[in-house]
Amino acid sequence: MSLCQDELKFGHEMRQHFSFAPGYRNLNHGSFGASPTVIRNRANELREECEATPCPFIKYRFPQLLDDSRAAMSSFLGVPESTIVFVPNATTGVNTVLRNIVWNSDGRDEILQLDVIYGACAKTAQYVCEASGNKVRTRQSSRLEGNHPRIAIFDTIASNPRLRLPFAELTAVCRAEEVLSLIDGAHGIGQIDLNLSKLDPDFLVSNCHKWLFTPRSCAVFYVPERNQTMIRSILPTSHGFIARSQGSSCVKATDFVSNFDFVGTTDSVSFLTVPEAIQWRQTVCGGEDKIRQYCIQLSRKGGQRVAEILGTKVLGNVSHSLTECCMVNILLPLTKPTSGDESMIRTAGAPSITVTDWMQQTMIRRFKTFMPVFPFQGSWWVRLSGQIYLEESDFEWAGWTLKDLCETLLDEEN
């Protein structure tokens, strides 16, 4: 599986390692990821081993392999093994944190969040507020009114629009203000450098199945030892839970880790592929720096070319601090409203449909691709992902495809 450095070549040659359908252009790696065949084969081998000897594998072999994955991830992120566990996805990690916090009874506790928070995490915060009997509220600013900001949720890289946030600076502010920091790093690991020992957040969760190349679904959940007493239960509560009546407050790191070891008969084999994914990126791709440099430059150059074809612009800033990642947002040349009744598309003989659904369904049907289309601040945008199996020609193609779709949308409405 190893290649010499001068043999490495990112772009279409890398497609051989993935399982895309002939002619399908995967320009949306960011949503659900894609895993190299050899890593998925490893997962399938482990599933076959489990089927061959179910009880020995689940009770004894799985925990050993899970410890191997935790060790590989702790080395990758530069933190102790005692602080690393795995959950299915970033949303599960956010739920785990928010549902474990004990809120004060005076009704002044607050969850701070940005307006670009991921939709499912925003819904989670709403649910927690409701389930607490309004002991906690969601806000974007706080203390001037005498309230108590308890925890702040923010992304490494927001989903829509795709923007790299100043998460290190936000973490430092939270620390100074004695507010817990919960980093939704769904688009973090494998895309940007995450030195957790230096960053030192209170909680962080990051999907491995997006940019690290593990099969779905797998996310690393980091909780420093100082906060592990807060995480009393996983979702769902399983055999690792120790009730306070049994004389434990989940103080020991081993208690925290064992809480996440076995979560019923869910398929958690993807957790066990982390060592293979990290090794594949090193041996086949040449390491994290090479992957990151290629994908960031590809998304930056490719996004600019798409904007030129469309006659629009890329969402970013002069310093490129917002775009220092592997995804890019391009403005679409659409004047269609983004909300209200007029935002719907009405064509003869068909029910009304949103711009998002019309664009995405049409590109799937006509062009064998998928590019997320979404509204933001009154305009329509598209998000593209740079990845090692793509080239600038794919972005060129995407630009002309989007131009065709925008012109077709205008014709159909008229």
Anisotropy-based shape: globular
Mind summarizing the main beta sheet?
Answer: 7 strands, mixed
Q: Regions with pLDDT < 50 over 5+ consecutive residues?
A: 1-6
Strand order of the largest sheet: 1-7-6-5-4-2-3
User: Fraction of residues in helices?
Assistant: 25-40%
| CATH homologous superfamily caption of the largest domain | Type I PLP-dependent aspartate aminotransferase-like (Major domain)
Q: What is the total number of structural domains?
A: 2
Mean pLDDT: 92
* Count of helix runs: 13
First-to-last CA distance: 55 Å
Organism: Penicillium arizonense
Domain Aminotransferase class V: 62-329
InterPro entries: Aminotrans_V_dom, PyrdxlP-dep_Trfase, PyrdxlP-dep_Trfase_major
Keywords: Pyridoxal phosphate
List the helices and strands and how they pair.
Blueprint: H1 29-32, H2 37-52, H3 54-77, E1 84-87, H4 90-100, E2 109-113, H5 119-131, E3 136-139, E4 148-155, H6 167-177, E5 180-184, H7 196-199, E6 203-207, H8 208-211, E7 219-222, H9 253-259, H10 274-283, H11 288-310, E8 327-331, E9 344-345, E10 353-354, H12 355-367, E11 373-376, E12 379-385, H13 392-413
Parallel strand pairs: 2-3, 2-4, 4-5, 5-6
Antiparallel strand pairs: 1-7, 6-7, 8-12, 9-10, 11-12
Domain Aminotransferase class V: 62-329
Protein name: Aminotransferase class V domain-containing protein
Organism: Penicillium arizonense
